[in-house]
Amino acid sequence: MNKLTVRLMERRQQFKMPMLTVDNLNVYYGNIHALKGISLHVEEGEIVSLIGANGAGKTTTLQTISGLLRAKSGTIAFDGKDITKERAHNIVKLGISQVPEGRRIFSHLTVSDNIRLGEYTIKDKPENLKKYRKEFYDRFPRMRERKKQIAGTLSGGEQQMLAMGRALMAKPKLLILDEPSMGLSPIFVNEIFKTIKQLNKEGTTILLVEQNARMALSISDRAYVLETGKITLKGDAKKLAENPRIKQAYLGA
After folding, report:
1. Model confidence over 229-238: pLDDT tens digits?
2. Which tens digit of pLDDT belongs to each residue from 7-30?
3. How far is Cα 14 from Cα 37, in angstroms, rounded to an integer?
4. Hey, how many other C-beta atoms are within 10 angstroms of the C-beta on 169?
5. Which of 77, 113, 129, 172 would be 21's cystine partner, CB 3.0–4.6 Å?
6. Please, which contacts does 40-45 make with residues 24 or more away whose CB atoms are closer than 8 Å?
7. Rounded to two decimals, what is the model's pTM?
């Protein structure tokens, strides 16, 4: 444990630091400045949404937090530890799981195999892993009926359930969701959001990027608005939902 990590842990304990802190993050794609000094935080037990138009930098933000992209400058701290330069698989071990945009399941494998792949970071007893699988199937009963089905033949909503279940197998403290309702029918959208609220109620902290801004704000504690790589608005989600600018730009008002 390095000195910076120790200091971060001490500060978090002393000042009740957020679970996740992103500070002055700058990310580039070649010469393109994708994220321009953004800062945000997520408190333990919250649902925090990041909303904005396509190309605003939402997915880039999530992928940088998860270690899939590298920041040019700025810092990311999770649970008292600087993770700015950590590799993605180590970040999962620390307690952050991401459900990527488009779900990214292993389409040629079965439902059961996809779930087992979510266990790879867990160092636990076989009986506990079996318990975690049961929890997944209890949460998504239709997946139990499709254990041996090839994942690529599932409906879009079922694939989203599978992607969420795979991420949850790592027992994350922070679950990151990137556009979980994309391409889903209204019935599945309601089901997915109901699951998100239940997961949060059970103690999982959630960072959400969602094209359906109205739904996202309705279940969130706080939200950030990202526009062309910059945070332009932030605050209580319910108040942001009443903001005329947000209504016009994102809520179809």
Report:
1. 999 999 999 9
2. 555 554 455 679 999 999 999 999
3. 26
4. 23
5. 77
6. 40/224, 40/231, 40/234, 42/18, 42/174, 42/205, 42/207, 43/18, 43/19, 43/205, 43/221, 44/18, 44/19, 44/173, 44/205, 45/200, 45/203, 45/205
7. 0.85
SS3 103: coil
Hey, what are 61's tokens? 């933000």
Compute the radius of gyration of the chain from its Cα atoms. Answer: 18
| Both structure tokens of 184 | 């889903």
Q: For residues 131-158, b (16+ Cβ closer than 10 Å) or e, as one string?
A: ebbeebbebbeebeebeeeebeebeebb
pLDDT at 104 over 60: yes
Q: Which amino acid is at 223?
A: A
Q: Across-strand partners of 166?
A: none
Q: Which domains does the chain have, with CATH numbers?
A: 44-63+87-250 (3.40.50.300)
Query: If you ran DSSP here, which 8-state letter would residue 49 be given?
Result: E
